[in-house]
Specification:
A hairpin with a 3-residue loop joins strand 8 and strand 9. The strands form 3 sheets. Strands 1, 6, 8, 9, 10 and 13 form a 6-stranded antiparallel β-sheet that branches. Strands 2, 3, 4, 5 and 7 form a 5-stranded antiparallel β-sheet that branches. A 4-stranded antiparallel β-sheet has the order 12-11-14-15, with no helix packed on it. The radius of gyration is 24 Å and the shape is rod-shaped. It is built from no helices and 15 strands. By secondary structure, it is mostly beta strands.
Length: about 200
């Protein structure tokens, strides 16, 4: 579960663009990656190489030292589905100077939500208080989850409109007749959304 966002090591902590420059005789290579989408991280990799001469120029993108990414030319798109540090590499070649490679580490992070409640033991009909929390992992680098919405469902349809609530801290009185409920929280933040559940057993 979780949604993904990213950081660029050594360049920018938070943002959608990064540029790296290297010089190899008649070639200047720059690589820019941008984009963010919940649940999967979609990156558009834009090659902005400045060619100071040369013929038969080719471009090759790889991820984590794997196989070449199929692309239609200098630019390509990739999708990350797992958190952690991934290395994006661009290899540019021409006839006159051979090949030059530039790499960029990208940290793919995910938002993880959590539920806490009190009291730990309660009865049907009494009020239970719930609090949502969230974090962005992996950490470091630290990213503020910046949660903008908290949406709750208490799994208690007999309570009618009171079965749902919004806000980081909420409360609910369970109506029964059952004593076992599944609580669902959807948190939306800097890395998209995450859904988490917790069960509560009332006396």
């Amino acid at each position: 579960r979780g949604a993904y966002c990213y950081n660029f090591l050594d360049n920018v902590k938070h943002g959608n663009n990064v540029t790296i420059e290297t010089l190899h005789r008649v070639l200047v290579h720059t690589m820019k990656a941008e984009g963010k989408l919940p649940k999967k991280l979609y990156l558009q990799l834009d090659n902005t190489s400045i060619l100071l001469g040369g013929t038969n120029v080719t471009y090759e993108w790889t991820i984590d030292n794997g196989g070449s990414i199929p692309s239609s030319g200098a630019d390509t798109n990739i999708v990350f589905t797992t958190p952690g540090t991934h290395t994006v590499t661009l290899r540019v070649c021409n006839t006159e100077c051979g090949c030059k490679t530039v790499s960029q580490d990208i940290i793919v992070q995910e938002l993880l939500a959590n539920i806490s409640f009190s009291p730990n033991q309660s009865c049907v009909g009494s009020t239970v208080s719930f609090t949502g929390s969230a974090e962005v992992l992996p950490d470091p680098p630290y990213s503020d989850p910046n949660v903008t919405s908290w949406t709750w469902n208490f799994g208690d349809p007999n309570s009618g409109a009171n079965n749902t609530a919004s806000g980081q801290s909420v409360s609910h009185s369970f109506t029964g007749p059952q004593t076992f409920y599944q609580i669902t929280l959807i948190a939306a933040g800097v890395c998209g959304t995450d859904t988490t559940t917790k069960f509560i057993d009332l006396n």
